[in-house]
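Blinded run. Sample ID left blank on purpose so nobody reads anything into the name before looking at the predicted structure. Input follows.
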Amino acid sequence: MPNRVVTATAATAVLLAMTGATADASVLPVPYHGSAGQVITVIADSPTATTAVLTAWQRTGPLWDQWQVVHGPITANVGSDGIGQASETTAKTPAGVWTLTEAFGIQANDGTRLPYRQVGTSDWWVSDAKSPLYNTYYHCDPGTCPFNEAAGEDLGKAGPVYNHAVVIDYNRQPVVPGAGSAFFLHVSAGKPTAGCVSIPADDLKAVMAWLDPAQHPVIDIAVH
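Blinded prediction complete.
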């Protein structure tokens, strides 16, 4: 990404929240005409880019273009195959607008108001496209699960990247077998992902603390 992208700190969100300051930009970088009061935009320069610009926006008025930046812009890692049509056989981050309705993490909840699940090595996200549980959370001890565990993600074994994460509701209602599974906004490992969006831990903490289920938050992933 261009060098003009500067990593923000958690203090950015705190300062804006305390002062009510409005950032320079008041119009989202991509069209959005939904009713969400909170939008996270993730914008890449090209379909094959493996980094993008993530910005968190709060609606400030009834008009479509009344928005305030509350965090960012920061550099985010996206899929190693870029952004576009996701599937189980690619490492693309899904383009589109997706709701953010729940969160999880290996560590305890440190402030998000989203429904939160602390996970261990018996907590899975099912990526077995032949299973009726495909692209859902499931709890089972390793070796006893009713799906192909080799095609599932043991959330508790993922390491620090899943210390905290927000579920991106791509391919969940309805679930289409093979269209892709287990897409999250999670802690960055400093490299492209298998299709998730990742940002530094301090930035994720600030974003997760800001997310409010009453505002029906969404993530808008696009190529500009």
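Unblinding after everyone has recorded impressions. The chain has one domain: 10-223.
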